[in-house]
Amino acid sequence: MTDETPKWLTHARELYSLAQAGLAYSKNDFDLERYHRLQEISADMMASHSRLEKEAILESFKIQAGYATPKIDVRGAVIRDGKILLVKEVTDGCWALPGGWGDLGVAPSKMVEREVLEESGFEVKARKVLAIYDANRLDPLEFYHAYKIIFLCEILGGEATTSMETPAVGFFAHHDLPPLSIYRTNQMMVDEVYAHLADPSRPIFFD
Hints:
CATH topology of the largest domain: Nucleoside Triphosphate Pyrophosphohydrolase
Structural class: alpha+beta
Number of domains: 2
Strand content: 25-35%
Order of helices and strands: HHHEEEEHEEEHE
Largest sheet: 8 strands, mixed
CATH superfamily of the largest domain: Nucleoside Triphosphate Pyrophosphohydrolase
CATH class of the largest domain: Alpha Beta
Distance between the termini: 12 Å
Mean pLDDT: 90
Number of helices: 5
Number of strands: 8
Radius of gyration: 19 Å
Helix content: 25-40%
Shape: elongated
């Protein structure tokens, strides 16, 4: 995550958004050809600044039909005896708050409760939104814009249980964290969770 998005990525996203909306709503064959060309230019820009192949980028465009909007990532902050629940990510071997992409037709609070159960084995109830982050992931590069919502969750039951995506589950002290999977959860996010615990009246953080 970064405070300043590179200009090339801003331009590539804008071209992609224009092309995607045009392809969704235009009926003119000549315009459709131009919008496909905008997609190719956007994919060329992405490929030249990353390890991604142009063909793979264009293929991913096909599953993002319609007007371009951010994806939603939900994360559950679960505290027990002052320690925070983290799960180990199989993809990079580092740790994160349990969570993942939101699904169509599922409320964010229900989504995070389900993700926590599936990834950690704990049944929880989402009690409060702590933060909403502008999650532009740049390295490793992820083209699609995302918002990350962090919920404070209360444990209702269950026990630590691993999954195919999360081979380890544990509770960690604030100042004794394992290596974080920073494109899922970073130190700033964990600090924000503990700031809310110290001050329950603290307002929701948002970018």
